Structures are given as structure tokens and as C-alpha cells.
Amino acid sequence: MVTDYRKENVVLNCRFGQTNNQLPMKITTLTLLLLLLIVPKSNAQDDGLLGAAVGLAAIGTAIIAVDHMKEQAELNATEWLLNNRPEMNSFSLKTLSFDGKKAKDMSSVSVITYKIQEFQLRDKPELDGKKYVLFGFTSYGWANEMGVDLNQIIWHMIDKEEWMNMMVAYVKTASEETNDSIIKERLQTGKIVNKGVKEGFNYTIPFYKLDGDMYAVRDYDDMMKLIYNERSLGIYLKQTSNLVQIGRGDIIDIHEFFTEND
Q1: Domain boundary at 104, 126, 152, which?
Q2: Overall number of domains in the chain
Q3: Do both 13 and 143 map to the same domain?
Q4: Among 57, 95, 219, 230, which one is least packed by beta carbons within 10 Å?
Q5: Do 98 and 143 belong to one domain?
Q6: Which domain, by its residues, includes 177?
Q7: Would you list the DSSP string of 55-81?
């Protein structure tokens, strides 16, 4: 388990990203100028065509903006990994946080999640090495259409054992089950959803039913507290006094990543 509270190692990353942050806006401006030159405005029909073209350009720019944010975020995570885990010589890194997201939605994302897996370097290698998940806990307003600002990020990397420890603690917070061995056994074959640990169509460990404004809290370690309500897994960071949320979809993806092929 590796945690890094230092901020200085991301200064260069942010400067690197800033040189390209204007790219989506420049593409938008150039696209609109070209459309104004190409499409005549002689009648209402032409105005309608121009409006449709501008709308398509805006959609295309939004896609470019999200892709640009994703590239920046993955670049920063890779650089953190190179700085803090120099023994890892061959690995795959992919973020879960940008799939299906719009640029305007990313500013409210409080944690970026990355899947990492080592592999043996050879021709056409397979991902068959140890797995990790890297969390990037962000600050408010870290992302917008112009790019990302990762100055205030806190990195925290875990392996499967630590993930299972976290989920055992979370399940004990969210349910009446207190036996660690039973919880680990259920987690190995099931997945965590809103109402409990589920295997197939059955809930092997049901969670407490709470109203949306009710929370159950467990002090996990020196870094965080785990928070349960019916919508998400909450992590309270003691250093920054911030509460971040990991959605159920990401919890399922992380759990499947760690437990698949076991």
C-alpha cells in the first residue's frame, strides 16, 4: 500500500498539461469560423443548417475535451507511479473515471480511479501480473472544459489484499455481519451493490436500510474513515477533512478487476 501526500511532484505535470489545455477551445473556434465561411446565411433554411452544424461542432468539442482530460489524468498517474514505484518496469494503467462522462460532469468527481496490472515484457505480452488500484483524491473544481488541475491531488495505491480489507470493514459498517471470514468468503464470489453483497439473484449479506441523509461511520486507519449510506461508499480523508464518494459502478468494477480469474 502506497500513499503520497506530497504535492510538489505534480507541479511539472500541471505545467505540461497547461500547454495543451487551450486545444479544445482552439478547435471549437476554428471549427465555427470555418462553418461561418462555408455555410451561407441567405435564408431560414441555411440558418437552420448552420445551427445544426454548430451543434455538431459543440458535441465534437465536448468529446475532445473529455478525451483530453483523460489523457492528462493518465499521464499524471503514470508519472506518479514512475516516481513512487520505480521497481515496476512493465505495467498497464487505465482510468475508470471518464467512461460515459461529460466534461461538465467531471468537475464533481472527487476521486479518479485507475486499474494497474504488471506484466512480463515480451512480444505480445499478456496482462498476467499483480494487480493494483490507484486512487487520485481530487479537490473541488479540478476539471473543466479547459483541462485538469491536479495540484491538490492525494494519491493512494492498494492491492487486492488491502481492497478486501477495506470491503470487509465497509460490509461490517453496513450490515449486521461481523465475522471477517464469512464476509471474505461472500465477497470472493459475490459483489457489493446498493442493498448488500449479492451473488446471482440472492443477497448473501443484506445491508441496513437507511434514508438518503443517514450515514454509518467506521474509523478505518490513520488516513481515512469509511462511510456507508445507500448510494455510495464514502471515504473521509482525515488530512484534508474532505468526504469523497466512490459510486457503486466503480466499486463493482474494482471488485471484479481484483477477483476475476481467481
Answers
A1: 152
A2: 2
A3: yes
A4: 219
A5: yes
A6: 160-259
A7: HHHHHHHHHHHHHHHHHHHHHHHHHHH
Residues 91 and 185 placed together within one structural domain of the fold: no
Render pLDDT for 145-187 as a digit per residue (tens, 0 to 9). 556 666 668 899 999 999 999 999 999 999 999 999 999 999 9
Looking at the fold, whether 30 and 122 belong to one and the same domain comes out as yes
User: 10 and 26, same structural domain?
Assistant: yes
Residue that is last in its domain, among 152, 169, 202: 152
DSSP letter string, the chain: -EEE---GGGHHHHHHHHTTTTHHHHHHHHHHHHHHHHS--SSHHHHHHHHHHHHHHHHHHHHHHHHHHHHHHHHHHHHHHHHH-TT--SEEEEESTTTT--HHHHTT--EEEEEEEE---SSS----S-EEEEEEE--TT-EETTEE--TT-EEEEEEHHHHHHHHHHHHHHHSS---HHHHHHHHHH-EEETTEEEETTEEEEEPP---TT--EEEE-SSSEEEEE-SSEEEEEETTTTEEEEEEHHHHHHHHHHHHTT-
Spatial distance between the Cα atoms of 13 and 23, rounded to a whole number of angstroms: 17
Q: Residues 113-151: pLDDT tens digits? A: 999 999 999 898 888 899 999 998 876 665 555 566 666
Determine the angle formed by the axes of helices 23-38 and 44-84, rounding to 10 degrees: 160
> How many Cα atoms are found within 13 Å in the side-chain-facing hemisphere of 112?
32
Note if the pTM is more than 0.90. Answer: no
